[in-house]
Amino acid sequence: MQLRLDALEAHLAKGLAGLYVVYGDEHLLAQEATDRIRASARAAGFTDRSVFTVERGFDWSSLLGASQSMSLFGDRQLVELRIPSGKPGKEGADTLKALAAAVNDDVLTMITLPRLDAATQKSAWFSALSDAGVALKIDPVERAQLPNWVGQRLAAQGQRVAAGEEGRRALAFIAERVEGNLLAAHQEIQKLGLLYPSGALSFEQVQDAVLNVARYDVFKLNEAMLAGDVGRLSRMLDGLRGEGEAAVLVLWAVVEEVRTLLRIKRGVAAGKALAMLVRENRVWGPRERLIGPALSRVTEASLEKALALAARLDRQVKGLSGGTPGNHRNDPPPDPWDGLFELAMTVASPGKGGSVPPPPSRPRSAAAAVRPTPR
Predict the structure, then answer these.
(1) What integer best gives the mean pLDDT of the chain?
(2) In the list 28, 109, 274, 358, which could disulfide-bond 368, CB 3.0-4.6 Å?
(3) Starting from the edge strand earliest in sequence, which strands make up the sheet with 2-3, in order?
(4) DSSP for 267-331, written as a single string
């Protein structure tokens, strides 16, 4: 059966299943979930533990042997199988199906996997495991959920932010500093617990203690663009530049969103239903609720101009041409990261042009210097 992470405690309180599959890329939450299952297993008498990691040349028969053998001391066994690639191969798939069919009361099996695509989740081996035990999907904490997640973690260690606007500012500040790096977020929250006593935390205390440990994902840029969150967009581009991300990959991610918006915009103009266009263009998750407001901000003409700018930026980031001071006004800025910000702004805030100031939480940088949108 499938189980939500927030239902794990209630499930364990009722008793252990014989098989658990924990899958997802949010390492902190996956680690906490597996730790909780291990603790419950130890309390239930599963004191003999074997760990297997699937690598090239892995002997799958050793896994079956461990799951079918009794401990020398008669203890119940916890068998852990880690598949970092998420791809067991044909032999592994057959072994996993056999393992699912042989669940017994004296062996508890826990399998950990990375995030799985839809096809893998429908595979015969994964379905067999899910049907025989419990499949626990570890979803990432989305940016919009992060302040609430931080608040819950503070409450768990006896702390809270101040009431009202000051508290909202404190949670937003922490979220900005830890976005995309949940393990570091956990460490920063623990640090607040060490530095300050239980009770309310002021904004100044939070600001003094929490380091900037954010890590940005290039494939989350589209969310900031669609939401019209200029401050976050600027921070993300600066962060990606500082982390050494390739400008050509960032350009591809931004252009894909512009193209998607243009296809949907043209489809709506042709009389097609927005819901159908969203499905056809594979707009899922947080993007689905953001696409409507973004469409209302942009015009078909502005998106076409954005693609023209993208074509010039593509040549620039590949070293085939570049903007220089005094060039034609349709040339991209001299710094390609300025051009990337300008391109993303055609969706995030198409009407502001050069009037957007840098976010106050960081020094002005190249990505925050907005140039007028080409016309």
Answers:
(1) 86
(2) 358
(3) 2-3, 134-137, 19-23, 107-113, 77-82, 48-53
(4) HHHTT--HHHHHHHTT--THHHHHHHHHHHH--HHHHHHHHHHHHHHHHHHTTS----TTS-TTS
Entry pTM: 0.67
Class of domain 2-137: alpha beta
Residue with tokens 């617990």, as numbered in its chain: 193
Domain extents in the chain: 2-137, 143-209, 218-368
Of the pLDDT bands very low, low, confident and very high (cuts 50, 70, 90), residue 330 is low
Kindly state the average pLDDT of the residues 299-327: 80
Which CATH number is 143-209 given?
1.10.8.60
What's the one-letter identity of residue 84?
P
Answer for the pair 47, 75: CB distance below 8 angstroms, yes or no. Answer: yes
CA angle 309, 224, 328 (to 5 degrees): 20
* Cα–Cα distance measured from residue 254 to residue 256, given in angstroms and rounded to the nearest whole number: 5
User: Is residue 167 very low, low, confident or very high in pLDDT (cuts 50, 70, 90)?
Assistant: very high
Tell the CATH topology of 218-368. Answer: Zinc Finger, Delta Prime; domain 3 (1.20.272)
Under 8 Å between Cβ of 133 and 96: no
Query: Could you tell me if 309 and 339 are in contact, meaning their C-beta atoms sit under 8 angstroms apart?
Result: yes
